[in-house]
Write a structure and sequence with these properties.
Elements (H helix, E strand, L loop, with lengths): L2 H18 L5 H16 L5 H10 L1 H16 L4 H13 L5 H17 L2 H7 L1 H10 L4 H14 L7 H13 L6 H30 L12 H8 L4 H15 L1 H35 L2 H6 L2 H10 L1 H32 L1
Helix pairs in contact: 1-2, 1-17, 2-17, 3-17, 4-10, 4-14, 4-17, 5-6, 5-12, 6-7, 6-8, 6-9, 6-11, 7-9, 8-9, 10-17, 11-13, 13-14
Amino acid sequence: MPIQLLYLGIVFVVAILGFTAFKRPLYECMLIAFIVLVAVTGTWSSIGTYMWDAITESSLYVIIVFIISASLLSKTTVIDDFIAIILSIFGRFTGGAGYVAIIGSTYMGSLSGSGPGNVATTGVFTIPAMKRSGFPPHLAANVEAHASTMGNMIPPAGMIAVAFAILDSMYPNTYTISQYWLVLWGIAIWFVLQRIITMYAMCKYYHVEPMVKEDIPPFKESIKHGWKAIFLPITVFLPFLLTSKFADFFTKQLGEAGSKAFSDSILLFVPALIVVVAILLSDKATKKEMSLKNMTNFVTNGMLKVVPTASFVNDLGADSLDVVEFVMEVEKEFN
């Protein structure tokens, strides 16, 4: 068995036992798993280096920025407008509430980077809507949970930054973050299509009906009121598309190191850009509410959610990076 799988298995076993048997938060379980991994590999002398590398890893700050931006994004009305458009289009189909959950919750999950948090927000609407249209309760919960969790695998979810950091440590200076994200968006399209096809089969099997008419906003009204919400996903996608397609131009202007640094820096300013665009696209009441003071309060009040989530993702990233780096060192010794 490859040594990588053994170390990864140790991390999973320790984390699962800590979470299920001892009921500890996941970020604590990942920290304990990291300590166990250091003990197993006998690299106690390097633990300070590991901790310092984790603290100085840019992905940590990217994750924090995205989580904070998600907490601010939830206070705007542009997300509601976007969901209303999806409802007006797919709600009329057989099993329409399920399609709304797949598309809307996947999209929201990618922005928030939190599957459980997304279930708690969009699931409050989609699960009852699915049950009213004939979904068995267990299927409604399953569809929403899977869609929200799938969002974690789609940019700009914070976990993607950790995954790229691992890829970059294995193949330094080979791929840019923009290239990486565009490939993942292509894969994400297949994931969503696969879920939609599965949903169609499930709707036929369970004889699911369309959504209740009262729950479906008129298409013309939702477009008229919320058409500007379409610019939000464009804001997320466009910077990465441009830096990927015009990579040669940026390389000529900035050099290879500068071009890569510019591509990586997109991860830091895109979350802020998303929030600015969302505020500009929201109604007047929301714009008035999103003052600097109020936004500071929103972030401060949400720190109990931000810190554990960021700690968990960073612990997971640190563990994964340490495993990769350790295995690479072992391979060098043998070669």
